[in-house]
Amino acid sequence: MARPAALLRDDAALQVSDHGDGVAVVFQHGLGGGEAQVAQAFPPGPGLRRITLECRGHGASGLGTSRPFSLEMFADDVVAAADQAGLDRFVAGGISMGAAIALRLACRHPDRVAGLLLVRPAWIFDSAPANLRPIAEVAGLILDLGPEKARTIFTQSKTAARLKREAPDNLASLFGYFDRPDAAPFAQVLADIAADGPGVSANNAAALGIPTLVIGNAMDAVHPLPAARTLAAAIPGATFAEISPKALDSVRHFAELQAEITTFLHAHFNFRSLVPS
Fold first, then answer.
1. d(C-alpha 166, C-alpha 271), whole Å
2. Can you give the C-alpha Rg of the chain in angstroms?
3. Phi, psi of 169 (to 5 degrees)
4. Cβ pair 170, 220 in contact under 8 A
5. Nearest to 108 by CA among 128, 82, 130
């Protein structure tokens, strides 16, 4: 059962997707992604209700007028979407930026978050981590030069050459930012979010007492495997899973990702309530 809806915030109309029935999982996309990215990653099937808010400037959601963009802003929007969906308690998760949003929700709203699914995290605790510099570089070029000239310069850069060797999937995602029809205004979203952080500390993570799954993969410079391991080690009792790199075999990557999420949810939740099994 699908329940697409709009969430009206003060200055923006945001798109919400609400699919299925059962254990409620609020699962967020990565920077530049949207509902399509989440649908590819999240396991289909009975017993799960998956809610996804397309963040400001993503998918069918408007940019709004508030600046700067931040993970705090996006997380507050997600809480509003959960309220609109009637969710008192839910599993929070997401990919990359979505994982940072989920971690913030768990630390800021412990009474509402029953579990965590952190897929390919790009942040641990600090703002503007070094692994996000390629995104900041692309954003700066677009803001300064416009998408066409920026793409030409970035193609010839040391960053592009390094990623072509080490993380071709990351490079493809970066080139996608130049090709967006809204490349110029969206570059500000990229710049603001790449400079931001989840706004939580190691002590916040250490205080979490909920089932947590952290998933990482190799050949990913923007989402380093050591970052996923470090984040898993910082959360008591967290499960860590390494899956096949998307850069090598995307079909296998998504199959393994869905399998890990399904196994985790079945192991920790009874699919009738959000009381851990």
1. 40
2. 18
3. -65, -40
4. yes
5. 82
Q: Is the dihedral of CA 51, 79, 91, 253 positive or negative?
A: positive
Cis status of the peptide bond prior to 68, with omega within 30 of 0: yes
Strands 22-28 and 47-53, sheet pairing:
parallel
- pLDDT tens figures, 175-222: 999 999 999 999 999 999 999 999 999 999 999 999 999 999 999 999
The torsion angle over the Cα atoms of residues 262, 265, 267 and 272, rounded to 10 degrees, is -120
How many whole angstroms separate alpha carbon 171 and alpha carbon 154?
A: 10
Distances in Å between the Cα of 40 and the Cα atoms of 8, 28, 34, 141 are 26, 12, 10, 30
Give the predicted TM-score (pTM) of the model.
0.95
Q: Give residue for tokens 């923006």.
A: 12
Contact by Cβ (8 Å): 120, 223: yes
